[in-house]
Amino acid sequence: GQNIDQPTEMTATEGAIVQINCTYQTSGFNGLFWYQQHAGEAPTFLSYNVLDGLEEKGRFSSFLSRSKGYSYLLLKELQMKDSASYLCAVRDNSGGYNKLIFGAGTRLAVHP
Amino acid sequence: DTGVSQDPRHKITKRGQNVTFRCDPISEHNRLYWYRQTLGQGPEFLTYFQNEAQLEKSRLLSDRFSAERPKGSFSTLEIQRTEQGDSAMYLCASSFSWGAKETQYFGPGTRLLVL
């Protein structure tokens, strides 16, 4: 079966660093994506990993370990505008096309 | 604005009515996806088009749901005889088939409320 787990909620302080973990089980793994979603808005693409290791994009970094079925999103120098839900999504190609399987999302609240 | 657009952004309807949503993908994207998202959950896959061909439908998509993508451009999602359980955000995403580099970009969504 397919299963993606991530914490439901996290809180952090402005200027700090936060790590959001994601574990997954899927049959046709073909990459892992992180999206940011503000309340009432569409998910926006943050990062993408297909190989093991760390991908860095400004204040955001994402890590993947395929053998462990594990990823994390690291947010540095937190800002108030980073308060949002962060969605972990596995790209599954077992059907012959790339389908995204999403976790339920982690609601991050950044406090002053 | 060259992003994915969806219309309408909000729709309120009475149970039993039919509704239709439209999605305009990024112009050079050949793949189009529909997802449904309920409160506190991540998006759930509904259906997928490569150009004008509908290649996959989720079990979530009952026979009351139908989607089309004539000419491989915009797409429509129709829900017939709406039920209160259909209330959700309907998201459209598009991508270009770059193999491992394929990234889906989402539209703003249509929020449906069935009374």
Please describe what this structure looks like.
The complex is a heterodimer of chains A (112) and B (115). Chain A has 112 residues and is mostly beta strands. Helices cover 0% and strands 60% of the residues of chain A. Chain A contains no helices and eleven strands. In chain A, strands 2, 4, 5, 9, 10 and 11 form a six-stranded mixed β-sheet that branches. In chain A, strands 1-3-8-7-6 form a five-stranded antiparallel β-sheet, with no helix packed on it. Chain B is built from no helices and eleven strands. In chain B, the strands form two sheets. In chain B, strands 2, 4, 5, 6, 9, 10 and 11 form a seven-stranded mixed β-sheet that branches. In chain B, strands 1-3-8-7 form a four-stranded antiparallel β-sheet, with no helix packed on it. In chain B, 0% of the residues lie in helices and 49% in strands. Chain B has 115 residues and is mainly β. Chain B is globular. Chain B starts with a strand and ends with a strand. Chain A binds chain B through residues 4, 30-31, 33, 35, 40-45, 48, 50, 87, 89, 91, 95-105, and chain B through 4, 31, 33, 35, 40-45, 48, 50, 55-56, 91, 93, 95, 100, 102-109, 111.
In a few lines, what is going on in this structure?
Chain A has 112 residues and is mostly beta strands. Helix content of chain A is 0%, strand content 60%.
